Amino acid sequence: MALSGRRRSVPLCLWLALAAATLTLTQAHEDTEAELNKITNKVFLDIQIDGKPVGRILIGLNGKAAPRTTGEKGIGKHGERLHYKGTFFTRVVTGFIIQGGDVVNNNGSGCDSIYGDKFADEDFKLHHKLGVVSMVNEVNILPDGQRKAVKDTNGSQFFITVADTPKTRGLDGQHVVFGRVISGMDVVHKIEALGNFNMAETGQKGRVLIANSGELPMSDELK
User: Fold this and answer.
1) Which residues on adjacent β-strands are paired with residue 132?
2) Integer Cα distance of 211 and 46 in angstroms
3) How do residues 181-218 score in pLDDT, each as one tens digit?
4) Which positions fall inside the PPIase cyclophilin-type domain (predicted)?
5) Whole-number mean pLDDT of the chain?
6) Phi then psi for 49, rounded to 5 degrees?
7) Top-level CATH class of 39-216?
8) Which residues are catalytic, by number?
9) Taking burial as the number of CB atoms within 10 A of a residue's CB, which of 2, 128, 129, 143 is the most buried?
10) pLDDT value for 75
11) Residues 117, 137 contacting (CB under 8 angstroms)
12) Alpha-carbon span 158 to 64, nearest angstrom
């Protein structure tokens, strides 16, 4: 059968229906991401470098995106109450991240959680950008030297991103974002300015201490 050269027109009502459906789906996606990105809790880390106070990092937690990750402090497998007070930031990669949260060995080699050694990844819907707080996982080193996160190996360690770069965005789908820095990025950058170090690998003495930590009341503008 020969095809007619005449083009059949699509009714205007169909175009409008398609456009409306697309808009609805787009809006639903935006609404979902906005809902997941809402701050549900607010916590602080008071930082000392070489024994001198340098300021406070204020973090908003995304409890709707990662309720297990942002759960209340509790008892770890060793029977001790888990909190970050008295622990060090144990690793810095300039232009990328600062890392802390080792409540076991306090050098970046250990982890614990209220669920045991490790717990499963939650939601990967929130993305990595400047000032994001995300979970540290165990990593495999690939043949090309790249680091690949191991699935479902979350513990107590976390990192804060110090830049918005392709490398930072490459963390999406591997690490669970559970919060963002509300204020105190100047303190984050003071830690970054110390240069690259990794206490777990070098055995060096801790310099960046979380002198105090805790939860603060939520203000209306953050809800």
Assistant:
1) 180
2) 6
3) 999 999 999 999 999 999 999 999 999 999 999 999 98
4) 44-215
5) 80
6) -115, 120
7) mainly beta
8) 91, 96, 99, 137, 159, 171, 175
9) 128
10) 44
11) no
12) 18
Q: Is the pLDDT of residue 141 over 90?
A: no
- Break the chain into its structural domains and give their ranges: 39-216
Which residue has tokens 């995106």? 65
The number of beta carbons lying within 10 Å of the beta carbon of residue 84 is 20
Residue 32 has pLDDT above 50, yes or no: yes
Q: Which of 142, 180, 175 is nearest to 61 (CA)?
A: 180
Whether 70 contacts 62, CB under 8 Å: yes
Q: Residue 32 is which amino acid? A: T
